[in-house]
Recover the amino acids of this structure.
C-alpha cells in the first residue's frame, strides 16, 4: 500500500513537472500597446510552442491590490510567476523569500539581490541604453541632414515620463549615441512627471520644437502620445518607444505614422519566451539579473516601411555599423543604473542648448 | 538665458497659455456655476473624463466631430444630473458622491473602452475626429497679436466667450439671481417661494455642461485620442482656479489664466534644463502664493469694514 502511494506520488510529481504552470501578473491592464501586451504575447508564444499552462491576471492600477494578489497567486500551485516594471520590485523582494519553492521572473527592472534570499528570482533587464544609443545616433544624423522637416541647428529632443533610473537609462544612451555622431549636439530634455498625461506631453514637445529641435524621442508611455501629436501638428519628426508605434497608429492616422521615423523597441515578448524556455531546460539563471541587449534581441530599432522610406540608406547603414560595433564591444554604452547623480547631471549639462 | 527670453517672449508661448488654460477655464466655470448655488461640484474631473471618452467614441462611429462633441457634453450633463439626484433626492453627502463619481468615471471609461475597442490604455485604434481650429479674419493678419489670438481651437473661443455669458447669466438674469439667492441662503430663498431643489438641479446641469466642453477639448482638440485618466487633475485645478476668483466669472478666468501661465511656463522652462522637479512644482507654488494674497486682501477688507463700523 505504502509503495503504491509512493509510486502514485512520483507519477503525480512527474506529471505536474511536465507541464509548467505559469502566471503572468500585470500591474495595470492589458491594452497598453506596449509592455504588458508584449508580455502577454510572449506568454501566448510559450503556451503554443513550449506547452506550458499559463494564466494572465490583470491587477489594475490600484497599487494597494498588487501585493495581496501576488501573495494569493504564490499560495496557489503555479511554478513560475512573472511580474514586471519597477513598481513591482519592492513587493517582489518582500514576497519572494516567503515562497522559496516558487520561481519568480521580473522584467524591466531588477530586485536587489544584496537583500538576500532571492535565489528564486530571475530579473530581466533591457539594455535600453544600447537601443537608445542607436536612436540618439539616428536623431543626430537626421537633425543636420537637411532632410525635409529639419532645420540646420544640431538640436534634438527627449521626452521622459519621470526622472527615474529606467528613463534616464534611455537618456544616457540617447545622449551618448547623439554625441558619437556629432560631439556638438544639443539635447532638449523634458520630463512630464506623469505617464498618463498626453496633453502635457504634447505641450512639452511643442516647446521643444519651438526651441529648435526637429526630432524628439518618446520615453513617456501614454504621455508620449502627445509627442506624436506634436510631431504631426508642427510637422517634425518623432522616435517611438517600447513597441513599433508607427504600426500602432498607421490605421487610425496614416499621416501621423509618417512622422515616426522608427521606434526603439523592448522585446518583452521574446525575453519572457526565452526565460521560460531556459526554465524548462533548467538553464535559466534564477538568483541573478540578466541584461538583454542587441545580442539577445532584447532591444532594437523598428525596421518597418517608414524607417526604410524616411531614413536615407546611408544613415541606415551607419546604424547597422554602430549596432555591430556595440555587439563586438567596440562601443561601450554607459548605463544610468548605479550612475552617480553628479555624473548624470554632468552628461545632461554637456548637451544643454 | 538667451533661450529663456526667446522661449518666454515668443508669440507661441502666449498662444500656448491660452491653449493650456482652456480645459482649466471650462472646469473653473463648471465649479463656479455649481458653487454660486451652494452645491460645489466635486465630480467635474469625472464628468470631463466621461465627455472626453464619449466625444472620441461617437465621433469615431459617426464620422462627425460635432456629433461627438454633442455626445460628450450630453454624457457629462447626464452624469451631473445623476450627481444632483444623489445629492438632492437621496441626500447623500455631496463631496463623497462627487469623489465616487470621479472614481466611477475613471473605471467606467476604461471598461467601456475595452468593451468597444479591446484596448485599455488609449483609443489609438479608433479613427476619431477633432473639432476645427478657427482663424479670425482681420486679427490673424496683425503681426504678433494675430499669432497669439488667432488659429485657436473652436472650444478655446467658446471657453472665453462663456466667461462673459456666465457672468451676464449670474448677475444680470432672474435665474442667475435665484441661483445666487439659493447659494447665499437657501432657507430665505425657500421662504420666498424659490424651489431650492430645482435651482440646484439647474446649476448642476449647467456645471455638467461646462465640464463636458472641457473634457471634449482634451480628447478632440488638444490631442485626438482618449487615454485613460487623461484629465489628470485638471478638474481639480479648475476648482482651485474658481476658488481664487470667488463668485465672479472674470475672477475664474484670471485664476485659470494664472494656472495656464504657470503650466505653460513650466513646459518652456524645462526645455532649457531647469530641473523638472522644480518646473512641475510651479503651478502649485503659484496657487499657494495667489491664495495667500487673496486671503490677505480679504482680511484687510474685513478689517477696514470693521473700523468703519466702529467710527459710525
Amino acid at each position: 500500500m505504502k509503495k503504491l502511494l509512493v509510486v502514485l506520488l512520483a507519477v503525480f510529481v512527474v506529471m505536474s513537472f511536465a507541464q509548467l504552470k505559469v502566471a503572468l501578473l500585470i500591474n495595470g491592464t492589458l491594452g497598453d500597446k506596449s509592455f504588458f501586451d508584449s508580455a502577454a504575447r510572449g506568454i501566448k508564444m510559450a503556451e503554443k510552442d513550449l506547452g506550458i499552462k499559463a494564466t494572465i491576471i490583470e491587477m489594475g492600477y490600484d497599487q494597494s491590490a498588487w501585493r495581496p494578489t501576488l501573495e494569493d497567486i504564490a499560495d496557489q500551485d503555479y511554478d513560475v510567476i512573472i511580474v514586471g516594471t519597477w513598481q513591482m520590485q519592492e513587493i517582489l523582494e518582500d514576497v519572494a523569500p516567503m515562497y522559496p519553492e516558487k520561481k519568480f521572473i521580473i522584467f524591466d527592472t531588477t530586485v536587489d539581490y544584496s537583500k538576500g534570499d532571492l535565489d528564486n528570482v530571475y530579473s530581466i533587464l533591457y539594455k535600453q541604453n544600447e537601443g537608445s544609443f542607436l536612436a540618439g545616433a539616428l536623431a543626430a544624423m537626421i537633425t543636420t541632414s537637411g532632410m525635409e522637416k529639419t532645420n540646420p541647428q544640431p538640436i534634438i529632443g527627449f521626452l521622459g515620463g519621470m526622472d527615474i533610473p529606467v528613463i534616464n537609462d534611455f537618456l544616457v544612451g540617447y545622449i551618448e549615441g547623439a554625441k558619437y555622431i556629432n560631439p556638438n549636439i544639443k539635447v532638449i530634455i523634458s520630463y512630464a512627471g506623469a505617464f498618463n498625461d498626453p496633453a502635457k506631453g504634447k505641450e512639452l514637445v511643442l516647446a521643444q520644437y519651438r526651441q529648435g529641435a526637429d526630432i524628439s524621442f518618446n520615453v513617456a508611455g501614454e504621455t508620449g502620445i502627445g509627442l506624436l501629436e506634436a510631431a504631426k501638428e508642427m510637422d517634425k519628426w518623432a522616435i517611438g518607444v517600447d513597441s513599433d508605434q508607427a504600426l500602432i497608429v498607421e490605421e487610425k492616422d496614416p499621416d501621423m505614422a509618417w512622422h515616426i521615423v522608427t521606434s526603439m523597441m523592448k522585446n518583452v515578448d521574446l525575453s519572457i519566451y526565452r526565460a521560460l524556455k531556459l526554465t524548462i531546460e533548467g538553464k535559466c539563471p534564477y538568483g541573478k539579473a540578466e541584461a538583454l541587449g542587441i545580442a539577445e534581441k532584447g532591444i532594437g530599432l523598428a525596421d518597418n516601411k517608414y524607417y526604410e522610406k524616411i531614413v536615407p540608406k546611408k544613415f541606415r547603414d551607419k546604424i547597422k555599423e554602430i549596432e555591430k560595433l556595440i555587439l563586438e564591444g567596440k562601443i561601450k554604452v554607459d548605463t544610468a543604473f548605479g550612475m552617480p547623480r553628479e555624473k548624470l547631471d554632468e552628461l545632461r549639462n554637456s548637451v544643454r542648448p | 538665458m538667451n533661450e529663456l527670453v526667446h522661449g518666454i517672449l515668443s508669440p507661441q508661448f502666449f498662444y500656448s497659455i491660452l491653449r493650456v488654460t482652456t480645459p482649466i477655464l471650462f472646469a473653473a466655470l463648471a465649479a463656479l456655476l455649481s458653487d454660486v448655488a451652494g452645491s460645489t461640484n466635486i465630480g467635474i474631473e469625472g464628468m470631463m473624463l466621461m465627455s472626453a471618452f464619449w466625444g472620441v467614441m461617437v465621433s469615431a462611429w459617426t464620422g462627425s466631430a460635432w456629433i461627438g462633441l454633442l455626445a460628450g457634453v450630453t454624457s457629462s450633463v447626464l452624469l451631473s444630473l445623476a450627481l444632483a439626484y444623489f445629492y438632492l433626492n437621496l441626500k447623500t453627502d455631496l463631496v463623497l458622491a462627487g469623489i465616487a463619481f470621479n472614481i466611477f468615471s475613471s473605471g467606467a471609461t476604461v471598461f467601456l473602452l475595452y468593451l468597444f475597442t479591446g484596448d485599455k490604455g488609449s483609443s489609438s485604434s479608433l479613427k476619431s475626429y477633432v473639432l476645427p481650429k478657427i482663424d479670425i479674419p482681420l486679427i490673424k493678419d496683425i503681426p504678433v497679436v494675430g499669432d497669439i489670438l488667432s488659429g485657436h481651437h473652436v472650444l478655446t473661443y467658446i471657453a472665453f466667450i462663456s466667461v462673459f455669458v456666465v457672468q451676464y447669466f449670474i448677475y444680470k438674469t432672474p435665474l442667475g439671481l435665484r441661483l445666487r439667492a439659493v447659494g447665499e441662503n437657501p432657507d430665505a430663498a425657500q421662504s420666498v417661494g424659490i424651489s431650492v431643489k430645482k435651482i440646484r438641479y439647474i446649476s448642476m446641469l449647467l456645471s455638467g455642461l461646462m465640464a463636458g466642453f472641457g473634457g471634449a477639448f482634451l480628447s478632440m482638440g488638444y490631442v485626438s485620442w482618449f487615454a485613460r485618466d487623461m484629465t489628470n487633475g485638471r478638474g481639480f485645478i479648475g476648482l482651485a482656479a474658481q476658488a481664487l476668483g470667488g463668485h465672479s466669472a472674470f475672477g475664474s478666468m484670471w485664476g485659470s489664466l494664472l494656472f495656464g501661465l504657470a503650466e505653460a511656463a513650466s513646459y518652456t522652462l524645462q526645455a532649457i534644463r531647469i530641473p523638472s522637479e522644480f518646473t512641475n512644482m510651479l503651478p502649485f507654488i503659484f496657487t499657494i502664493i495667489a491664495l495667500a494674497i487673496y486671503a490677505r486682501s480679504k482680511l484687510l477688507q474685513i478689517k477696514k469694514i470693521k473700523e468703519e463700523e466702529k467710527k459710525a
In short: Chain B has 13 helices and two strands. The first strand of chain B starts at residue 133 and ends at 134. Chain B touches chain A through 44 residues (CB under 8 Å).
